[in-house]
């Protein structure tokens, strides 16, 4: 491992240019550093795949879990809710802790606990144990995700930060595609418990990757003092940053729109429009590919096109798609062609809104990268946990709640971008271009 070659915050000077992230570090990176950075990005992508893999591989097995554990369907669904709650809390706590204790050791602890929780899920004798194990699994997974993001914020800035986070989001979009397919294959070849054994194996692989690839990116001199008071203080400091809060709202509401789609798309396409599970899976995969391509395009545009403008390019069609879905659901029996187009637009534009909003939010609080990432992750998964059950209030044959949630979340995203608007400056010379 050559982690010592990776520059950490404080090694090089940075400046801030008004809107968007701070400028990139001064100086050039050598080939060895680029190689380490690529391995590091791959490891963070691995960590961000925890949530979709731990949910999508498990959802196809819900009926089997209910039968095996003698549980009601609502009890099995609660295991998904406890996972989301754990994810949100894990990110909220893990980020500040990593600001105090450093990145690597808390990250190793998180992936080890997540692996053990996956084993507990595989061995669960009843639904109560499953709920608790899923909560712990989500907590550790969220802890690992937020520290992985903080590591990137430690090392990158400016257009590079936006670019790297978009690449992570784009490659991470493969997990929602592979998750349901992997879960269906595992369920076909074995029982539902095998999916958790598979997650445990992935946890071991993540532990090895962190040990070999991830350096300690937060030196002791840059850490904040420990204790609950320091956690609360750093949280207050990031929440006082108006533009940070605005960008967090952009990213969080985008996550809410995504999970409104995820939780209802199967019912809308299968129950309402009669698609087979295989055709539905293909459409789901195509939408995820659209989001991945959009995030990759956004990564290529970083530093060339203002990041706020890219977010607007996503918000306008997303809002139009939500309105079109509401009209179709209320007056035209939710026609198939409309649904396919709307879902593709929603997921593709999510690749422009969420990652860029998150990147700009992280860049606003470089002095507290762990806490900034923690609050961001907490808000995102809180949106996910809230919109997923609300979207199903209309039952299996109504897309109205989902459409209303998409419109509401996209509107909140627009409000967030307005809240995060840069301050107008006066003077004879204009400032540098906005990010």
If you had to describe this structure to a student in words, what would you say it looks like?
This protein is an all-alpha fold. It has one domain (35-419): Up-down Bundle (Growth Hormone, Chain: A). 75% of the residues lie in helices and 0% in strands. It is globular and about 60 Å long. The two termini are 34 Å apart. Residues 1-36 and 426-434 have low confidence and may be disordered.
Quick recap of the structure?
By secondary structure, this protein is mostly helical. Helices cover 75% and strands 0% of the residues.
- Number of beta-strand segments: 0
Rough outline: globular
| Beta-strand proportion | under 5%
Question: Main β-sheet: number of strands, strand sense, barrel status?
Answer: none
Secondary-structure element order, as H and E?
Answer: HHHHHHHHHHHHHHHH
Termini Cα gap: 34 Å
CATH class: Mainly Alpha
Mean pLDDT level: 77
Question: Which tags fit this structure?
Answer:
disordered N terminus; single chain; Growth Hormone, Chain: A; disordered C terminus; mainly alpha; 16 helices; 0% strand; 435 residues
List the helices and strands and how they pair.
Layout (H helix, E strand, L loop, with lengths): L30 H18 L1 H7 L5 H7 L4 H29 L2 H20 L3 H29 L2 H15 L1 H16 L3 H21 L14 H12 L2 H31 L4 H25 L5 H25 L4 H29 L4 H22 L9 H20 L16
Helix pairs in contact: 1-6, 1-7, 1-9, 2-8, 3-4, 4-5, 4-6, 4-15, 5-6, 5-9, 6-15, 7-12, 7-14, 8-12, 11-14, 11-15, 11-16, 12-14, 13-14, 13-16, 14-15
